[in-house]
Amino acid sequence: MNNFKFAYATTNDINDIITLMKNEFPKFTLEKSIYGTNKINQYLKLSITEKYSNKKRIVCKSRNRIIGYIEGICNKDKFHINYIAVDSEFRRKNIGKRLIENIIKSLDKGINKISIHVYKHNFNALNWYLKLGFKIINEKNIFEITTDSTIENSCKDIFILNYPQFKIEYENFEFSYLKIQFKSEEFLIGVLGARYFRVNNVELLNNSKIIGFLNSIDSNRKIIISSEYKFNFNENISEVKFIGKNYYLEIDKDSLIEKL
């Protein structure tokens, strides 16, 4: 009989969690997440010990070896699953279901919806969630953009509003975000590891002044962007690589409990 134990993640679990994530997620996916950075262990150490965190993390152990992990974040009435991983040697033993079951037990009563993002090409995972009753709410295309590195920063109307906070966070964890003001507008740009910016507003890539600003920070970084539409080339772009289609799924918590 399998003797699986489920518990809240502790700082003693960090190295095993990172190893599990690296083993079970494709490299091209992981490198575009915080688990692809070199200082993820430092972030987890602080986040796990944070007393008032809205994040939840549960591990599954077999003979003191971590074979399953789930992590997510509470936001108002919803819990979003950021990551869930099961050791390939222990698949088809209902560990995934039990991870979700245990994380649900840890949630406050005000949480009534569960959500997750899943790539279309991850057929097994997508079908598994659909069988559990998750519904596809929307879908977005994920692109890796290479911009024209020769575009220079010629704009004096762009300001970083959170530079001290960004610098401290990035130096400690190797990921953060820049809060930018351009004329009367404000927007966020994620800075992930040593290779990527993350942008959610496609229109920013049509603006050569924004591209020049990003080049002044690091002209070698590629931009990860999600869009509901196909991405079209413009004069600021040298290459567009389609990463995949990403689905946003959601289910009522009570409906999910009935399926587990």
What does the model show?
Strand 2 and strand 3 form a beta hairpin. This protein folds into two domains: 108 residues, Aminopeptidase, CATH 3.40.630; 104 residues, no CATH class. The chain has 260 residues and is of the alpha+beta class. Strands 1-2-3-4-5-12-6-11-10-9-8-7 form a twelve-stranded mixed β-sheet. The chain has eight helices and twelve strands.
How do the strands and helices of this protein lay out in sequence?
Blueprint: E1 4-8, H1 14-24, H2 27-30, H3 40-49, E2 55-62, E3 65-75, E4 78-86, H4 95-105, E5 113-119, H5 123-131, E6 135-147, E7 158-160, H6 163-173, E8 175-182, E9 185-192, E10 196-199, H7 208-218, E11 222-227, E12 237-252, H8 253-259
Parallel strand pairs: 4-5, 10-11
Antiparallel strand pairs: 1-2, 2-3, 3-4, 5-12, 6-11, 6-12, 7-8, 8-9, 9-10
Q: Report how far apart the termini are.
A: 20 Å
Order of SSEs, N→C? EHHHEEEHEHEEHEEEHEEH
Query: Helical segment tally?
Result: 8
Q: Portion of residues in helices?
A: 25-40%
Class of the largest domain in CATH? Answer: Alpha Beta
Rounded to an integer in angstroms, the radius of gyration calculated over CA atoms is 20 Å
Low-confidence stretches: none
- Named CATH architecture of the largest domain: 3-Layer(aba) Sandwich
Keywords: Acyltransferase, Transferase
InterPro entries: Acyl_CoA_acyltransferase (IPR016181), GNAT_dom (IPR000182), N-term/lysine_N-AcTrnsfr (IPR051556)
GO molecular function: acyltransferase activity, transferring groups other than amino-acyl groups
Organism: Clostridium perfringens
